[in-house]
Amino acid sequence: MKAPSPRGWLRVAGALWLGGIGTGVAALARYSLTPGATPVTVAAWPEGTRLARHAGRPVLVMLAHPKCTCTRASLAELAELMAHGGGRADAFVLFLRPEGLEDGWEQGDLWRTAASIPGVTVLSDPEGLDAKRFGATTSGHVVLYGADGRLRFSGGITVARGHVGDSPGREALERVLREDSEGGGTPVYGCALEEPREG
What we know:
By secondary structure, the chain is of the alpha/beta class. It has two domains: about 1-30; about 60-185, Glutaredoxin, CATH 3.40.30. The protein has helices at about 5-30, 70-85, 110-115, 130-135, 170-180; strands spanning about 60-65, 90-95, 120-125, 140-145, 150-155, 185. The chain has a six-stranded mixed β-sheet with strand order 3-2-1-4-5-6. Helix 2 runs parallel beside helix 5 (about 170-180). The longest helix has 27 residues, at about 5-30. It starts with 5 loop residues before the first helix and ends in a 13-residue tail after the last strand. InterPro entries: Thioredoxin-like_sf.
């Protein structure tokens, strides 16, 4: 059997290279479009949370992992939401601080980004206790409770991990804040809250 010419070897190597790139791109796309674990819906404002509810005011809470790079997109969407509906709800971002890590571990770049959003209060969530109370399992999970303490929305505000742009979640939240209606829920795209991860 005749051995392939040098040009033939280049064609084979090129085909393998392109195949590898295609496989990698497909894997990344699949990962970015895979939502986090299904959260537990908490229908009424949870007992024991440190967050205060003010009479007559809806409350929006985002639960976030400070090392999840996907969450940067969720914060960008939150900034848009606050720009359009700011003042209609008290808003918090709670950053996980896993057990055994020192105070301040969670106060990095994402913390500073969240703190720069007008109308948002940023707090630590030691051991993820409040995330558990709100039923969140994935970074970027947003819950909105009405003035009556009943859940109006639970889900994500991006359409994929790290994707900035219009999303059904953000649109639903804007509608709920504008009309005091029910918003349902949407999948959450981000890192798991129970483990410190990078993106």
